[in-house]
Amino acid sequence: MIKKAGSNVARKRRHARVRKHISGTAQRPRLCVYRSLSNIYAQVIDDVAGKTLVAASSLEKAMEGKNGGNVEAAKEVGKLVAEKAKAAGITSVVFDRGGYIYHGRVAALAEGAREGGLEF
Predict the structure, then answer these.
(1) Which of 5, 69, 80, 114 is 20 to 30 Å from 108 at the Cα level?
(2) Which of 13, 16, 32, 21 is nearest to 120 (CA)?
(3) How many structural domains are present in the chain?
(4) What angle, rounded to 10 degrees, do the helices at 105-115 and 71-87 form?
């Protein structure tokens, strides 16, 4: 059986295309989203220094007992990453959807981050 180029290959291609134009700086870092089948992850990255400043995911202690693969959990992860970013002195970010379509869990994470006080 020959495998065709899967959806993850296409997603990585889209992500690479977007990353040509989007970059995070110390003043306005990049909020990057990764979505797996069962969890969702978010990082705030300074691409100039090559450092992850803040990270949150549905696997953290604060999210214990919740299903990480649904929209409600994604919104909570967005609020959590915004809370951590504000504690680190970050108020404005560039949103990087990671090649995913902006709907469902990705949109919920962005909405939660906005509710938490991040501007993008």
Answers:
(1) 5
(2) 32
(3) 1
(4) 40
Number of neighbouring beta carbons within 10 Å of residue 70:
16
The verdict on residue 2 lying in a domain is no
- Using the predicted structure, report yes or no on whether residue 3 has a pLDDT greater than 80: no
pLDDT at 73 (0 to 100): 96
Structure tokens at 24: 């995070």
- Does residue 94 lie within any of the structural domains? yes
- Residue 40 in any domain: the answer is yes
Q: Tell me, yes or no, whether 1 lies in a domain.
A: no
pTM of the model: 0.91
Q: What does the pLDDT look like over 69-86, one tens digit per residue?
A: 999 999 999 999 999 999
- Six-digit token pair at 102? 């902006």
> Are 119 and 50 contacting, i.e. CB atoms less than 8 angstroms apart?
no
Cα–Cα distance between 70 and 86 in angstroms, integer?
Answer: 25
CATH code for the domain of 28:
3.30.420.100
